[in-house]
Amino acid sequence: MQIGSCFFTVIVKLPFPKGAAADQERNDTRMRKYILKRIALAVVILFCSTFIIYALLRCLPASYVENMAMQLAMKPGAKPYDEWLAQLNASYGLDKSIVPGYLTWLQDAIRGNFGDSWKYTVPVLQKFKEVIWLSFTMGAVAMVLELIIAIPLGVIAATKQYSRADYAITAGALVGISLPTFFFATILKLVFSVKLGWFDLYGLVGRNYAQLDAMGQLLDKANHLVLPIITLVIVSVGSLMRYTRTNMLEVLNADYIRTARAKGLSEKRVIYQHAFRNTLIPLVTIVGGSLPGLFSGALITETLFSIPGIGFTSYQAMLIGDIPFSMFYMTFLAILTLAGNLISDILYAVVDPRVRIA
Fold first, then answer.
1. CA dist 188 → 29, 231, 232, 274, 342 (Å)
2. pTM score of the predicted model
3. Beta bridge partners of 116
4. Half-sphere exposure of 309 toward its Cβ, with a 13 Å CA cutoff?
């Protein structure tokens, strides 16, 4: 009895063998270290990117201060252009060289102070908050429609390879990829705005917007967003459709799919329970990487339709050399790009158990 008790005590005190729990903990530790390294690298890249952006913006041919100095110098009895230019450059901190000027901007940016927009005469962050959600709404609706259209059509084209449906879907995808945004948007406006008169050519609201009730104003804005959203969907859906088709064909030719068919599984079950689930792995990484793009705006589309989103607003700011707003927008895009790459890498490791971060 004493021998058995001592043996049990020894067994309890011995460490358990490393199993699935230990492997999972080790993988989690590696993942945390990987994420921290990627974040640190992203911060370094962000500093380098913002410095390059600042240097390029300081070299823009168009300058707000130059235009303002010229207007002030033309007034009766005003100071000469050179004196006005020097005074305005000093007031906006442009009298410093690029490196000291960038360090001054960086100190303010870290504190969340991006200055006042020269064009819109309001704080940059205030103007950003006014326009960002419109661009996000357009991008989110366009992305949902893109996924609903592209993924099913890509699967159909792969499962019916070299059929009429495959050729038709592939041709439609190539047309969407090849169409320039400005050309397709112009065709839409010509047909649905000029010829049919269903939609307005430009703007976010109609002429009678102020006389409408809350629901009428919402529907009026939605009506003006139809053509821009269609433009975003058509010019983007083709590439995702082709990508889905290519990955689906690769999965359908894999050995485990042949094994599943040899076991007598139905074709429907083979496609949608085995092949399609593995096709989603690269698709999830693409969708994850494109999520930050919802906040970046669609500069060309918004400009063509005069939709006051973040893309159109930043374009108007760049035309006059609005350095504070342009600098913030370009920095915002850099952060979104770095975040998108990080999200893609993490999602790929999460959705695919075969991937291990070493």
1. 52, 8, 12, 40, 36
2. 0.76
3. 123
4. 27
In 189-322, alpha helices (H):
214-252, 255-262, 267-269, 276-290, 299-305, 310-319
Residue extents of the structural domains in the chain: 133-351
A 10 A CB-CB count for 239 gives: 15
CATH dotted code for 133-351: 1.10.3720.10
Q: State how far the Cα of 140 lies from the Cα of 130, in Å rounded to an integer.
A: 17
Separation of alpha carbons 327 and 323, rounded Å: 6
Q: Are 163 and 251 in contact (CB under 8 A)?
A: no
pLDDT at 285 over 80: no
- d(CA 280, CA 288) in angstroms, rounded, equals 12
Tokens found for residue 167 = 């050729």
Nearest in space to 301 (alpha carbons), one of 207, 223, 235, 243: 235
- Structure token digits, residue 302: 């918004």
- 244-278 residue pLDDT tens: 898 888 888 888 888 888 888 787 888 877 787 77
User: Whose CA is closest to 64, among 39, 23, 92?
Assistant: 92
